[in-house]
Amino acid sequence: VAPPPELDDAALIRATEAAERAAAAPKPKRYDPRTLLAAPAPAPPKKRRSSEGSGSAADPLDLCLSSDDEKEDQRWPCSACTFANDSKRTTCEICATPRVRASSSSTAAVPRRSSASSTSSSPLTTRYAFSVSANTGRVSAFSSREGAPFARLMDAFDPAVLVDGEGRLLPLSADDLGLDDDDDARAVKKFVAAWRSLRAVDRQTLSGDELLEEALDVELRKRRASSSDKCFDRGVARPRKRARADGDEDDDKRACPWCEKPLPSDAPDGSFCDWACASEHKLRKPNNSQASRSQLFALEHGVCTACGLDAHALYRRVKALTPPERFQVLMATPGFAPRGKKDRRLDTCLECDYWQADHIIPVAEGGGCCSLDNFRTLCTPCHQKETNALR
């Protein structure tokens, strides 16, 4: 290999100056991908065209604004499902929720406040409230400073972007969340941590238009205070939201069987006013455990709330195997060991053999004819332990 050519003094000086210029050049800024996921950089404000007759020359950037950009600014978000609707619509195109207009230009429209929430506040304090969309699960944060009405703090953000893959909160600052105050950031992260610690059924109970101003356990007790009547039956023939006395008249066929609200004239007999009433009615029908299992699976996906076992995944795995292979898998899973070679799980694979819709308050203690709030997912071994504890 030939030796490298020797550099003269002028070439050596040029090479040294080029290396110094490269070292002094500014390095590109490195971004944290978690920060970009949690709080995307806000878009620069769009400049408006100067009004006619002002005498000022038009800004070249104003000429780049299209009519589509101006129309997009006029769209309004739905308070229930957060869908961006056209400014000419008075109801949401997706869920038909009426448009809520702000009372003044300085404060954004907020969901209605709960009638049971307190309105008293000490001076020079900041109160926080949150609302969660029942359709998308996105959270909107609100703040009230010095007793003023609630104003939007963060609008329709996904709480999952504030946690890592293991469910722990990311160390995000107020700037990462797009907030100006560290106290606001702490309040948002505290709510997200409390929200993610709830069961899926409890989250569904608290979702909706009402603001959550108090601790989540207090809000849950308020929502469930009206359904505290005890029932020692697993179901009734004609369940109703409002209990009737013996002397009440018969059912009105032109009313919802559950909430008894009037139905449209063209509605068939026995129809429900909405999906929620139909679900509550099905849960309380006798010998209809499939309704509770299907509604509970939509929220908790067959994962045991006691031991964390994914019983649905175990069922899908066992179903795809032959009987000898099922025997080996069940023997290796704690609590699922087959009871001999004639165990039906070896020949017939049914999901009800792997997880159960368990009553949190047992039927024997008045937990029958209940809503989905009193159900939880338990794998078969955990359910057997709870049953043995009642005997």
Can you offer a commentary on this structure?
A 3-stranded antiparallel β-sheet has the order 3-4-5, covered by helices on one side. A two-stranded antiparallel ribbon has the order 1-2. It has helices spanning 9-24, 33-38, 67-73, 182-196, 200-206, 216-223, 275-283, 289-300, 311-319, 323-332, 344-347, 380-390, and strands spanning 76-77, 84-85, 126-132, 139-145, 151-157, 355-359, 375-379. With 391 residues, it is α+β, with helices and mostly antiparallel strands. The termini are far apart. 29% of the residues lie in helices and 9% in strands. 17% of the residues are buried. Strand 1 and strand 2 form a beta hairpin. The protein contains 12 helices and 7 strands.
Brief characterization of the structure:
With 391 residues, the protein is of the alpha+beta class.
